[in-house]
TrEMBL record:
Top-level taxon of origin: Bacteria
Gene that this polypeptide is encoded by: sucC_1
Free-text function comment from the UniProt entry: Succinyl-CoA synthetase functions in the citric acid cycle (TCA), coupling the hydrolysis of succinyl-CoA to the synthesis of either ATP or GTP and thus represents the only step of substrate-level phosphorylation in the TCA. The beta subunit provides nucleotide specificity of the enzyme and binds the substrate succinate, while the binding sites for coenzyme A and phosphate are found in the alpha subunit.
Enzyme class: ligase
Lineage: Bacteria, Pseudomonadati, Pseudomonadota, Alphaproteobacteria, Rhodospirillales
Protein family according to the UniProt entry: Belongs to the succinate/malate CoA ligase beta subunit family.
Keyword Nucleotide-binding: yes
Binding positions (Mg(2+)): 208, 222
Species in which this protein is naturally found: Skermanella aerolata
Signal peptide positions on this chain: none
Protein name: Succinate--CoA ligase [ADP-forming] subunit beta
Catalyzed reactions per annotation: succinate + ATP + CoA = succinyl-CoA + ADP + phosphate; (S)-malate + ATP + CoA = (S)-malyl-CoA + ADP + phosphate; GTP + succinate + CoA = succinyl-CoA + GDP + phosphate
Entry keyword set: ATP-binding, Ligase, Magnesium, Metal-binding, Nucleotide-binding, Tricarboxylic acid cycle
EC number: 6.2.1.5
Pathways per UniProt: One-carbon metabolism; formaldehyde assimilation via serine pathway; Carbohydrate metabolism; tricarboxylic acid cycle; succinate from succinyl-CoA (ligase route): step 1/1
Length: 398
């Protein structure tokens, strides 16, 4: 789960991370009020969407205009810029051409920036440890830094058995070229950020830029936090920060029914049991010249009702021109899948080609249910055969 910048800053602030003063605004009058309370003389008006590159982005109705993060010097300017941003669609390199509508702003006090740094914490699968990443190239996308100047990225892995210690943080601080009181301030901030990461079951914390001010303070000028969905039951306060407007409605609906669903941009819907098999199914669709419309894992213990829901979910995507059901029946019985597919197809009046590949427990019964359904279902003998049939069927129907 992702949250907005201002929400991430509020969480980090509770753990002792220094952040600029600011407030959220949903309307122009609210933006003015926040600015008046901050007192100036410099304000930053920030669009709050779940995407990076906001400052470099452009609004769809004014592509030649300013981006989604603006520095202004009066309450009147805060109001006029808020008017240009609220309710308008911001397009960044992370949103894609469709962009995202800005429904809330964060009005923040200005900051005397002397240096811009980068700090991030994430789980490193290679080492199975929390890894602290830092760079002197703050304000830039870390992917660009990694590609162009990888030597400028510092990495420190923290052993989960012992946790973080002062020397971890000092290694980062000295590696960033900090000195004097800056070192102690950075150590305090890094230790606080790590504690927030662990306590809140975060999957990533990114502070970019982490700035050194003219007075030598270390401040998180921007913040991004993602959380492990599987741990949200332990953090109801964090779960309440979810902004449903920033997420795919279909993905939210899938979560309600225990389905692992991610919408993609292709035209062939996939329903599979098992994440690995789902990935392989998407790969082989591409191999045969098609594009998957989604990742959908119904799980090993799916019921007929869940399968029916999954089928409806796939067909709710207007881009879907064909469906591939690929089931290996271990725990999951093939006849249950077949019953769910038939029930869903009848309920939604199936109008696109459907290819089903079944293998495993009760496979013959499952195939019998499909063949006797009276529905135009194409049966496949193996995964390659299934992919080829669904891709060809979509091309023929086009």
């Amino acid at each position: 789960m992702n949250i907005h910048e201002y929400q991430a800053k509020n969480l980090l602030k509770k753990y002792g991370v220094s952040v600029p003063r600011g407030g959220v605004a949903y309307t122009i009058p609210e933006a003015e009020q926040v600015a008046k309370e901050l007192g100036g003389p410099v304000y930053v008006v920030k669009s709050q969407i779940h995407a990076g590159g906001r400052g470099a982005g452009r609004f769809a109705d004014n592509p030649e205009g300013k981006g989604g993060v603006r520095v202004v010097k009066s309450v009147e300017d805060v109001a006029s810029n808020a008017k240009e941003m609220l309710g308008h669609v911001l397009v960044t390199k992370q949103t894609g051409p469709a962009g995202k509508e800005v429904k809330r702003l964060y009005i923040e006090e200005g900051c005397d920036i002397k240096r811009e740094l980068y700090l991030g914490l994430l789980m490193d699968r290679a080492t199975a440890r929390v890894t602290i990443m830092a760079s002197t190239e703050g304000g830039m996308e870390i992917e660009e830094v990694a590609h162009n100047t990888p030597e400028k990225i510092l990495k420190v892995a923290v052993d989960p058995a012992t946790g973080i210690s002062g020397f971890h943080a000092r290694k980062i601080a000295f590696g960033l070229g900090l000195e004097g009181k800056q070192v102690n301030a950075a150590v305090k901030l890094i230790l606080a950020t790590y504690k927030a990461f662990i306590d809140l079951d975060a999957s990533i914390v990114e502070i970019n830029p982490l700035v050194v001010t003219g007075s030598g303070d270390i401040i998180a000028l921007d913040a991004k936090m993602n959380f492990d969905d599987n741990a949200l039951f332990r953090h109801k306060d964090v779960e309440e920060l979810r902004d449903a407007d920033e997420e795919e409605a279909s993905e939210l609906e899938a979560a309600k029914h225990g389905l692992n669903y991610i919408k993609l941009d292709g035209s062939i819907g996939c329903m599979v049991n098992g994440a690995g098999l789902a990935m392989a199914t998407m790969d082989i669709i591409k191999l045969y010249g098609g594009e998957p419309a989604n990742f959908l894992d119904v799980g090993g213990g799916a019921t007929r009702e869940r399968v029916t829901t999954a089928f409806k979910l796939i067909l709710s995507d207007k881009n879907v021109e064909g469906i591939l059901v690929n089931i290996f029946g271990g725990i999951m019985r093939c006849d249950v899948i077949a019953e769910g597919v038939v029930a869903a197809a009848r309920e939604v009046s199936l109008h696109v080609p459907l290819v089903v590949r079944l293998e495993g427990t009760n496979v013959e019964l499952g195939k019998k249910i499909l063949s006797e359904s009276g529905l135009p279902i194409l049966s496949a003998d193996n995964l390659a055969d299934a992919a080829e049939k669904v891709v060809n069927a979509v091309k023929e129907a086009a």
